[in-house]
Amino acid sequence: MTYNVDGVLPTGLVSGFDDGTNLLLSGPAMSGKRDLLLSLLARGEADGDGAVIVTARDPAEEVAAEYADAVAAEPRFLRIIDCVSAQSGSATNGDNTHYVSSPGDLTGMGIEFSEVARAAGDAGVDRLRVGFDSLSPLLMYVDLQRLFRFLHVFTSQIQSQGWLGVFSVDPESHDEQTINTISQLFDGVVDVRLTDAGDREVRVRGVSEGPTEWTVVE
């Protein structure tokens, strides 16, 4: 089985990802990473896939609204793990949103993710697309070693369940060694960049025979 991404990534780059694939979505600020991440998740709605979004950057309401726009319908199964709102004191767990105290609460994230996984199973949703926006804020709270251990467990859970994971990171916010260390945990990388002309381009590394060419995303 594969997770279809036709129509999200340019034709000819890659049309789908194998079950259990974890991707690092790497690009600078303002490059449209989150739009791409949400589109990769929303593409699964047509196939009956559920979606889980961990947000360490913006509150759940904002992310849910953007996801609804990407789907253009009522999502079949959407759960959001919000790591930012609790700090402002405006967070109580709802039906679809789970709150974690801060982007540094890795234990809380892991617990809530396990809860969400159970809820998906109870709802009869066995295929999930998991988005993580973004890893960069976590590194302001925890050291690389702790984040690596956390991500190792998190990505292993996605792999063993046969889900698809897409984790965004801003490579310009971290040194090269940090990005290289994190990259080891992922099956492939989707790079995003903006050209001087303002076009958004992507390429895919690691999941095809060689890196693809930079290609404009419409």
Identify the notable features of this structure and list them briefly.
218 residues; alpha/beta; Rossmann fold; 9-stranded mixed beta sheet; two-stranded antiparallel sheet; globular
Provide a descriptive summary of the structure in words:
This is KaiC domain protein. It holds the Pfam family DUF7504. It comes from Halobacterium hubeiense. InterPro entries: DUF7504, P-loop_NTPase. There is one protein chain. With about 220 residues, the chain is α/β, with parallel strands linked by helices. It has one domain: Rossmann fold (3-Layer(aba) Sandwich), CATH 3.40.50. It is built from five helices and eleven strands; from the N terminus they run E-E-E-H-E-H-E-E-H-E-H-E-H-E-E-E. The strands form two sheets. It has a nine-stranded mixed β-sheet with strand order 6-5-4-7-8-3-9-10-11, with helices on both faces. Strand 7 (about 130-135), helix 4 (about 145-160) and strand 8 (about 165-170) form a beta-alpha-beta unit. It is globular and about 45 Å long.
